[in-house]
């Protein structure tokens, strides 16, 4: 009976897998983090046409403040959840399912919590982070290794874990 | 390779708990208003029981509706962009004039369409409030109106004399103890109180006349303090339509060309509030029971004072 050790290879994560993992995470966030705020969020969606909506919103600064506060709380929770999961387990649940992991681009180094926090700053719905909603997809598509701008800055990357070998008789 | 699904899931659950805590704290902090069906587009504000300035003004606090509470609901409904109209569901025989006027004045400032639906009774101060809304709908069996003012009081002077209880009158200002139950009112005092009531009565008539677009003469004629059934109230111009609560909601939908979904506003009660109202209700019942027994005893065995 011969035993062969499993070999693990890391390669840059393909875009479609990253996207799929992200959507899976968004689904979990919707169920676990957004649902408690559902009632509050629903009340922020005014009925009527767009102009009426703008008119109502601009006539009520208190409403705007309330809306921004709630959205900021949600964004902060999502940001910390992503950062902690990537720091503690090197992946969120979505990434785990698709065999993806977040590692440091520097050899033999583990990404710090701050780096994990910084690489997810695009969740914050405030300027200038909202610009990342446009910048990040462009970076993923057009960079050679398909990395995001925040991954470059924080020296982290998302990789796919491939296993080869196993137990053979 | 073993993946830490379970610990990762626990982290997600932990964040979910935080989200629940934050969401509930935020809702409680936000005016302590409990909204049933928060996604609704018509705010339904209930005016039930005695109308008072504060809940302690009512004999049984949980049966009072306060102007502070109602005004808070109106403010909230007005600020909420998803609310297109406000419906006041009224079931009250009135109350103190000041809170009724406060609510009425606040309603007049509302920019959104306002409606009243009168259930069993919408009388006196409650009708004053209803008249401030754009449209009043009542059931054909509802009691509407009672335009008038009263300042009745119990007077124990005779009873006190009977049992030899004296009233030592110490006042600075000759009218200071007017309406005191321990002595009879003088003719002068009666005239003064009546004058005050007449002023309030005229104020009430003016208000209804202006709100309902009726002549002062017409309102004065029907302002006998009497309550009218829905159909009579409609004929007299005190209300705009007959129907049920559902008809009232349907009318709002028709007027505003939308599908109505009512969001009912209530004051969020803490566990302590609920317990307190429960105990006050029970205390009242116990007190009433004791009073009834004492009264029975008094009738069958009159107290003899030597």
Write up this protein:
- The complex is a heterodimer of chains A (169) and B (306).
- Chain A is mostly helical.
- Chain A has helices at 15-34, 38-43, 50-58, 61-89, 93-97, 113-118, 132-142, 149-154, and strands at residues 7-12, 100-104, 156-164.
- Chain A has one domain.
- Chain A is built from eight helices and three strands; from the N terminus they run E-H-H-H-H-H-E-H-H-H-E.
- A three-stranded antiparallel β-sheet of chain A has the order 1-3-2.
- In chain A, 26% of the residues are buried.
- The mean pLDDT of chain A is 82.
- With 306 residues, chain B is an alpha/beta fold.
- In chain B, 47% of the residues lie in helices and 17% in strands.
- In chain B, helix 2 runs parallel beside helix 3 (97-108), helix 3 packs parallel to helix 4 and helix 6 (187-212) packs across helix 7 (216-222).
- The longest helix of chain B is centred in the last third of the chain and has 30 residues, at 271-300.
- Chain B starts with a helix and ends in a 6-residue tail after the last helix.
- Residues 298-306 of chain B have low confidence and may be disordered.
The gist of it:
With 169 residues, chain A is mainly alpha-helical.
Break the fold down into its secondary structure elements and pairings.
The complex is a heterodimer of chains A (169) and B (306).
Chain A (H helix, E strand, L loop, with lengths): L6 E6 L2 H20 L3 H6 L6 H9 L2 H29 L3 H5 L2 E5 L8 H6 L13 H11 L6 H6 L1 E9 L5
Antiparallel strand pairs in A: 1-3, 2-3
Chain B lengths: L4 H25 L3 E4 L5 E7 L1 E3 L11 E3 H13 L5 E8 L4 H12 L5 E10 L1 H7 L3 E4 L4 E3 L11 H6 L24 H26 L3 H7 L4 E3 H7 L4 E2 L2 H12 L5 E6 L3 H30 L6
Helix pairs in contact in B: 2-3, 3-4, 6-7
């Amino acid at each position: 009976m011969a035993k062969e050790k499993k070999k693990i290879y890391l390669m840059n994560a393909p875009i479609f897998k990253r996207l799929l993992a992200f959507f899976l995470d968004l689904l979990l966030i919707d169920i676990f983090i957004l649902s408690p705020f559902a009632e509050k969020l629903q009340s922020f969606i005014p009925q009527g046409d767009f102009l009426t909506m703008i008119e109502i919103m601009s006539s009520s600064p208190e409403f705007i403040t309330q809306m921004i506060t709630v959205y900021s709380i949600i964004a902060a929770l999502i940001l910390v959840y992503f950062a902690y999961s990537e720091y503690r387990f090197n992946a969120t649940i979505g990434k785990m399912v698709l065999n993806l992991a977040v590692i440091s681009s520097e050899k033999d180094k583990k990404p710090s919590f701050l780096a994990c926090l910084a690489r997810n700053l695009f969740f914050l719905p405030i300027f200038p982070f909202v610009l990342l909603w446009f910048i990040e997809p462009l970076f993923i598509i057009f960079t050679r290794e398909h990395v995001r701008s925040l991954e470059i800055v924080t020296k982290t990357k998302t990789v796919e874990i491939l296993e080869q070998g196993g137990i053979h008789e | 390779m073993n993946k830490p699904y379970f610990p990762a899931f626990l982290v997600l659950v932990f964040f979910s708990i935080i989200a629940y805590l934050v969401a509930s704290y935020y809702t409680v902090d936000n005016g302590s208003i409990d909204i049933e069906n928060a996604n609704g587009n018509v705010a339904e504000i209930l005016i039930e029981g005695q109308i008072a300035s504060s809940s302690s003004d009512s004999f049984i606090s949980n049966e009072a509706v306060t102007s502070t509470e109602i005004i808070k609901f109106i403010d909230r409904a007005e600020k909420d962009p998803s609310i297109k109209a406000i419906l006041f569901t009224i079931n009250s025989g009135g109350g103190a004039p000041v809170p009724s006027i406060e609510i009425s004045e606040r309603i007049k400032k509302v920019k959104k369409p306002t409606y009243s639906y009168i259930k069993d009774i919408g009388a006196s101060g409650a009708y004053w409030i209803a008249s401030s809304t754009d449209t009043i709908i009542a059931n054909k069996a509802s009691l509407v109106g009672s335009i008038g003012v009263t300042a009745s009081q119990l007077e124990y002077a005779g009873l006190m004399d009977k049992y030899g209880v004296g009233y030592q009158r110490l006042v600075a200002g000759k009218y200071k103890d007017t309406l005191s139950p321990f002595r009879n009112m003088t003719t002068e005092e009666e005239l003064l109180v009546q004058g005050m009531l007449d002023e309030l009565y005229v104020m009430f008539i003016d208000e209804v006349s202006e709100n309902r677009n009726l002549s002062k003469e017409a309102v004065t004629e029907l302002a006998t303090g009497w309550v009218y059934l829905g159909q009579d109230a409609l004929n007299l111009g005190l209300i705009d339509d007959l129907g049920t609560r559902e008809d009232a909601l349907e009318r709002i939908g028709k007027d505003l060309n939308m599908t109505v979904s009512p969001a009912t506003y209530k004051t969020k009660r803490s566990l302590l509030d609920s317990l307190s109202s429960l105990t006050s209700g029970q205390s009242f019942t116990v007190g009433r029971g004791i009073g009834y027994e004492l009264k029975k005893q008094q009738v069958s065995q009159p107290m003899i004072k030597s």
